[in-house]
Write a structure and sequence with these properties.
Two copies of one chain form a homodimer. By secondary structure, the first copy, chain A, is an alpha/beta fold. Chain A contains twelve helices and eleven strands. In chain A, α5 links the parallel β1 and β2. In chain A, α1 packs across α3. Chain A binds a DNA duplex through α2 and α4.
Chain lengths: 359, 359
DNA sequence: GGCACGGGTGTGATCGCTAACAGCGAGAGC
DNA sequence: GCTCTCGCTGTTAGCGATCACACCCGTGCC
């Protein structure tokens, strides 16, 4: 806009354009190699029907001119952008950030580009806006890292045939494919571990009530207690932050009957550990604590945290694999698939038998 | 490549295509609104010379057809992709992830799309590959979140005129613009704080020696000790991880003369805190610890960590602002700018006067 | 010799959009 | 009354790639 480019037709000085500010294009390469632009295209796309000698000549010319193919032109004609979209929320947290990384890494290896659209909140409008932006970019598929119904519902508003995957959450009734870990099973692992140690019951510091992941963890915890005939203590609403863990932890620390706490993520556990420490209750001697996620830091908490491991990078990779399989056969209206990964319990020093039952 | 798309041409049934699988284009909107495609384009681009009535008619048609402009076509002709590239490394850590978020957020508000290229390692080849991928995408500028010389040098290999910004690190001799915090000043703040409390000297757990950020922090620490006439203890090589902090911390914990430790980031401090705890040295009563970054979790460490605050989101925003100003005037060969933000010391409970000088 | 075949290559049309220019009425100025 | 401007709109020509098709030429076969 600033300076009008000189009319391109203009002066054909016959051979070598003096200085082409915009890089070279296929025709330039073709001219230098003494072939047609179509042959250059064939070399670029690895068509078999090009003589080896010609191919080399073209490759040399491309190198000499530092040629880079214009993806916009390619996209325009092929209608394939080779670009995938990611919708993310709170991508500063370890989990989402790791999934983003896993996705991007897998996409690159599959020859795709990735554009991200983070949403500032989980309002419907933000999600639709993000979807719209990605569609404008002609993405060939969308992965949403934002495990709330608002988001997965928003995904339904994509043009028909655009494959979508919700990772980390999402309910299986969705029109989208989903990839997630089995949160209920993870919560069961954690709770059962504490019961097995001899704790009469297990308290729970939950995540936000409107997150399916948080609800599933509550559910797994509750099921396990119920199955064991243990009392089911009340659950207070919270966020995913250490601050919340601290607040809830402070409350629980005042109750001497509390000997075991299962936290819905590691941050909550961190806050709970501090609250317990300040209340003078020793972990794990007096109170056992279990987290969820197995963030790298959790191995260095005081004490090192027993926690449910979630392989975020793997989640990212799997979601991308699912998306690509969806791109592969768009016409085939097979129902969206749902991948559920099994979590594992990582045992560390924050859990032990209750005081009365120590060896 | 997997499955050949069916030939696009297909059946032209004369007038209204029965089901247009590929969404509507400008001509469809034009036909429905009874205008030319150029008028539609004018409405889309807010040209002034369109009658209000016509504009509304076009907007109605666009809504009715759920029209979305094809960005590839627009990019092809305008040579502006409205897309920015981000090169990231270890984007699972809080710092990089936050910067990424800050950049994406600012880009969106400025009307740009963002594509990310994470690099699996800091090898030169990876960086060049990432740059190449982004250039193919016709990005209008690149922000690199990867504060090592390998990366910033790789940025020099962009086509002339493509603005680049290195955020979080990078030396000022660069051809790229840079945005970073004043690491030396941050280290001085931390060290001086400990000296002011009365500690005879301050030990340092440093980051990787080949990261400029880590080196600058060492430098600030050393300067401050030197200016105060304090002894400068040796520094051992490390990584940025809690594990490293634990290892270094264990070593320092054995030396009873150690009363103050400045860690190059919060993860290192977390590891050090655990090592000190296990060695039976109380923080802050016997040993004071200061971190760097002020990650959200650090307020909930045991004890809550005194640390140097780094506003990652702001770094991201500033780097984007710098990039956009670079895009604004590409012809003007002004030297790249360098923005340096001042860090702040966040006082918490991990620092206190040494045992002998307690009130 | 004539003809089908197929590898290797060139030609034209096209994707959806914007830039440049042309056209066309209506009101202003002489 | 005639030009001149100006607001509004349509027409045409690309952007840089790919696709469909035509073409050439050597080979193998009848």
């Amino acid at each position: 806009m600033t300076a009008d480019p000189p009319p391109t037709g203009g002066i054909e000085t016959g051979d070598a354009a003096p200085v082409r500010p915009r890089g070279s294009v296929m025709r330039d390469v073709a001219r230098l190699a003494g072939v047609s632009h179509q042959t250059v295209s064939r070399v670029l796309n690895n068509h078999p029907n090009v003589r080896q000698e010609t191919r080399l000549r073209v490759l040399d010319a491309m190198r000499a001119l530092n040629y880079r193919r214009n993806l916009a032109a390619r996209t325009l004609v092929t209608r394939r952008s080779r670009t995938l979209g990611i919708i993310g929320f709170e991508t500063t947290l370890f989990g989402p950030a790791s999934m983003l990384y896993g996705i991007e890494d897998a996409a690159r290896q599959a020859g795709y580009f990735v554009t991200v659209a983070t949403i500032p909140d989980l309002e419907r409008a933000s999600v639709l806006d993000a979807v719209d932006r990605l569609c404008q970019q002609s993405v060939e598929g969308i992965v949403a890292i934002a495990p709330k119904p608002t988001v997965t519902n928003g995904l339904h508003h994509t043009p028909a045939g655009l494959p979508t995957v919700a990772v980390g959450g999402g309910t299986e009734t969705d029109a989208s494919a989903t990839v997630r870990i089995d949160n209920t099973a993870g919560a069961r692992l954690a709770t059962q571990h504490l019961l097995d140690l001899g704790h009469p019951t297990v308290h729970h510091i939950a995540g936000p009530a409107d997150w399916p992941e948080a609800r599933e963890r509550v559910e797994g915890w509750r099921q396990t207690l119920y199955a064991a005939g243990a009392a089911v203590p009340p659950v207070a609403p919270a966020t995913w932050t250490a601050r919340s863990g601290y607040e809830q932890g402070s409350r629980l620390a005042r109750d001497p009957a509390v000997t075991a706490i299962f936290c819905a993520n590691d941050q909550l556990a961190l806050g709970a550990l501090r609250a317990l420490h300040e209340a003078g209750r020793r972990v794990p001697e007096q109170v056992s604590v279990v987290g969820f996620d197995d963030t790298p830091d959790s191995a260095y908490y005081l004490p090192p945290l027993t926690t449910v491991r979630q392989d975020f990078a793997e989640l990212g990779r799997r979601s991308l694999a699912l998306l690509l399989s969806g791109i592969g056969r768009q016409r085939d209206p097979r129902p969206p698939q749902h991948v559920v990964l099994a979590p594992e319990l990582t045992l560390r020093a924050s859990t032990a038998p209750p005081a009365g039952r120590r060896a």
